[in-house]
Amino acid sequence: MIKLEAYVPAGTEEKVEQLLRGKEVLLAEAKAGEEKYQDSQDWLDTEICAGEAQIERILKKAAEIQANADAFVLIGVGGSNNSARSVIEALTENLDGPAIRTNKVEIIYAGNTLAPHEMTKLFRKLEGKDFYIDCIAKNFETLEPGSSFRILREYMAKRYTQEEAAKRTIATGTIGSSLHKMCEEQGYDFFDFPLNVGGRYTAITNVGLLPMAVAGVDIRALVQGAHDMQVEVHENEGLANTAWRYAGLRNVFYGDGLRLEMMSSFEPRFRHFYKWWEQLFAESEGKDNLGLFPVTGEFSEELHSVGQFIQDGTPVMFETFLDVAETEDSYIVHESPIVDYFDYLNNKDFREINRAAMEATIKAHSEKLPCLRLTIGKLDAYNFGQLFYFFAFACYLSCKLMGVNAFNQPGVEAYKVQMFDALGKGR
Ligand code: PA5
Question: How far is Cα 331 from Cα 421, in angstroms, rounded to an integer?
C-alpha cells in the first residue's frame, strides 16, 4: 500500500473531483487494458511477465552466475537498465571495491554511454574478475548497447575459450529479433524481452528481474509487491484509488499552469529510482506539446543548491515527496566535550534529524507550491515492486487524462536519424 497525502491550496481537492467526474470510464479502460494499446500492455498483469516459470528460470540462471562469476555486466540503456539499477543500487552495496554484501557478484553497468572514458573504467573494473555479460535490448538497434556488446564480446574472447565465452554471454531481447538470432547462432543463453511491453514498463519482467536476482535481490518479494499493487489499483474505484487520485492531482496542477513535477526524497538510495521515474513520465507523457517535465531532488543535499529556486523562483512546479515510514539504520549524535554550538542535537538520532528536516521542508515548500507525499512502508524489494506498478499504472492514467499515448516515444527518433546519418548507418 502506498499512502498519498496532499499539502495543496484550498479548493484543489474539489478541482480534482471536478476533473475526474464523468471520466471513470478512463480508469475502467486502463484496468481492462485497451485494444489500441494491446502491443504495449502485458505489464498490466504481473502473472503474464513474471509468472512462476519465469521466476524459476531467472533464479536458476542467477545461481549459476553467482557460482561462477565475480561480476555481471548489465548492458542496456533506458528502460533496459533503469529498473534493475534502481533496486540493485538501493538494496545492495558495493562501496567502490570488493562487494560487502553477502552476495559476491558485483553488478557493472555498460551500454548506457558512448563516452570512451567509461569504457576505460569498465575494463579496469573487469580486470582479474570472472564475469558474465547480459545484453538487454528490445529490438537491438540502439547504439549504446549494440556498440558496448560488441567490444565486450571481443574482450570476452580474449579472456575465455570460445565455449566458455558463449556460456558467459546472455541476451535479453524479443523473440525473432537480430539479437535472438545471434544467440541461436552463437549458443548464448536467451531471455525473452516481452514483445508487448515497452522498455520503461519492463521492471517486472526478465529485463529487470534477472540482473536483480544476480545481485541477490529477493525477486519473489518484489513481484509479490507489484502483484499486490496490481490488485489494489484494479479493485479500488474513484478517489479511493491512489493511482487515479495522483493522476488527477497531476492533471489539475498542469491545468493550473504548472509545468514540472519534482520528485524529492530524503532517502538518497532513491538516486537511481529517480532515473527510472523520470524516464517513465518524460517518455510517456511528454508529447504533442503536452506533459509535466519530471525533475528530481536529492535532499537534504540539494536543498543547499536547488532549494532556493523551489522556495523562491519561477512558480512552475509542484513537488512529490517520496517518504519511507520505517528506517532500519540508527545513529545517535553524542554529546561532545568540544564547543561546536550543535548541542541542540545531543542524543538525537539521525533518523529523527532527517525526518525533522523533511517535515520542515514540506511545511516550507507547501507555502509556495503544491506538495504531495507518497509513503511506502520500508525500503525493500516488496516495496520497490509496489512503486514500479503504482507509478506505471498512475502514469498510464495520467497520460489518458492528458490525452496522449503513454506507450510510444516518437520524439526520441529525431536525433537518432541525424546520428545514424553522421555514423553512416543508412536509413
Ligand atoms: O521505454 C522505451 O521503450 C525506451 O526508452 C527504451 O527503453 C530505450 O530506448 C532502450 O531501448 P532498447 O531496449 O531497444 O535498446
Answer: 55
Report how far apart, in Å, the C-alpha atoms of 402 and of each of 23, 153, 285, 327 are.
12, 44, 8, 36
For residue 415, the CA-to-ligand 1 centroid distance in Å is 14
pLDDT digits 0-9 by tens, 186-236? 999 999 999 999 999 999 999 999 999 999 999 999 999 999 999 999 999
For the domain 42-217, what is the CATH code? Answer: 3.40.50.10490
Question: By three-state DSSP, how is residue 321 classified?
Answer: strand
Q: Which residue from 40, 75, 86, 138 has its CB within 8 A of the most atoms of ligand 1, so it is best to mutate?
A: 138
The domain ranges of the chain are: 3-32+222-411, 42-217
**How many angstroms does the Cα of residue 411 sit away from the middle of ligand 1?**
13
Position 244, amino acid: W
- With a CB cutoff of 8 Å and minimum separation 6, the contacts of 34 are 41
Neighbours of 417 (CB within 10 A): 11
Of all protein residues, the one whose alpha carbon is nearest to atom 15 of ligand 1 is: 137
Predicted confidence (pLDDT) per residue in 236-264, tens digit: 999 999 999 999 999 999 999 999 999 99
Point out the ligand 1 atom lying closest to the alpha carbon of residue 207. Answer: 13
Nearest partner of 38 among 184, 172, 272, 198, judged by Cα: 198
Distance 386 CA to ligand 1 centre (A): 22
- The closest-lying atom of ligand 1 relative to the alpha carbon of residue 77 is 10
Domains 3-32+222-411 and 42-217 share a fold: yes
Residue nearest to atom 3 of ligand 1 (CA): 199
Residues catalogued as catalytic: 283, 304, 416
CATH ID of 3-32+222-411, from 3.40.50.10490, 1.10.820.10, 3.40.50.300, 3.20.20.100:
3.40.50.10490
Position 38: which residue type?
Q
Query: How does residue 94 score in pLDDT terms, banded at 50, 70 and 90?
Result: low
Ligand 1 pocket (Cβ < 6 Å) reads 77-80, 137-139, 142, 145, 198-200, 283, 409
Residue with cell 547462432: 185
Q: If you measure from the C-alpha of residue 39 to the centroid of ligand 1, how many angstroms do you get, rounded to a whole number?
A: 15
- Count the neighbouring beta carbons within 10 Å of the beta carbon of residue 384: 27
Q: What is the pLDDT of residues 28-87, one digit of tens each?
A: 999 999 999 999 999 999 999 999 999 999 999 999 999 999 999 999 999 999 999 999
